[in-house]
Structures are given as C-alpha cells and as structure tokens.
Structure to design on (170 residues):
C-alpha cells in the first residue's frame, strides 16, 4: 500500500492550534502504519514536546509566515494581522508550497487553520480538510469579521470554496 503523506498546516497563533494538531497527528499515526505526517508551522512545537522524541513518521517543517500578529498569549492584533497578510506575496508562497507538496509526495492537506494551505493544496491538485474546535462566527463576532476579511485576501476566496462541513468529536 502506498503511504499516505499528510501535510498538516498549523496556525502560529498561541499553542492551542499546535497542541490539537500534534494530538490529531499522533492519533492518525497510531491508527495506520502507512500514514506519515509533516506538521508545517511556525508554532513552537518543541514547547509541547518537552523531552519526548518525535514519532518516527512525524516530521516538522518551518511554515511560511501566516501573517498572525500576536499581542499577548491569547490575543491577536486584527488590523496588524490583516495588514501583514495583505503584504505577503501570496501567489509566490502558494506556488512554492504547492511545489513542495508535489515533491514531498503529499496526498492530503489538513489545516488548523492557515488559509493559504487551501489554495496551495488546490494548486497541487490535492484535497484539503479544515480542522477547528468551534465556529468563529458563534464564538466571537469580531473574530468572524476578521476571518471574513482575511478570507477575502485569499485567491481564490476561502469561504466560498468551503463546500462541505462535518463535525466530528475527537
């Protein structure tokens, strides 16, 4: 059986996204010996790992900048984040990441929840999955507003491309 290489993109905002992604990746690796996973993030995964070694089928890869501008452990500067994201050379980043995906043999992209992972996976001809723990629209209207503005900067737009939604307890 051909191994399933998953590229798992993780937001650099705080440690919650990274902690969840690390546990989901560990579970996927436990469930199937043919799965390998690369966590693509600027988050400090080493803080979550402590002295524990990486699983032999789990790799870390430094992420491109996701534009997230934090002003504390739990806060994001929305205006600064939007400005930083708008300043990114998105077409070059997307093309470069799609090329890495093809070269690395990635077959599935998971994102918690870096928006450029989706157009990059589309450019590579791959399916992608969004992982999140709640609906931003319900949890924080201001965050939902920033997410919609951020989505409008993605080409093609992120939200209209989200055709299906499924909730699954982990």
């Amino acid at each position: 059986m051909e191994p399933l290489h998953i590229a798992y993109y993780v937001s650099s905002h705080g440690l919650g996204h990274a902690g969840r992604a690390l546990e989901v990746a560990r579970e996927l690796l436990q469930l199937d010996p043919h799965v390998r996973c690369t966590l693509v993030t600027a988050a400090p995964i080493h803080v979550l790992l402590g002295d524990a070694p990486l699983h032999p089928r789990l790799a870390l890869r430094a992420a491109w900048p996701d534009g997230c501008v934090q002003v504390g452990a739990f806060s994001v500067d929305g205006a600064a984040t939007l400005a930083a994201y708008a300043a990114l050379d998105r077409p070059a980043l997307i093309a470069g990441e799609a090329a890495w995906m093809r070269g690395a043999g990635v077959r599935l992209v998971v994102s918690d929840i870096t928006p450029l992972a989706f157009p990059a996976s589309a450019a590579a001809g791959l399916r992608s999955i969004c992982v999140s723990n709640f609906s931003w629209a319900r949890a924080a209207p201001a965050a939902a507003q920033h997410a919609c503005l951020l989505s409008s900067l993605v080409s093609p737009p992120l939200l209209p491309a989200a055709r299906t939604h499924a909730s699954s307890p982990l």
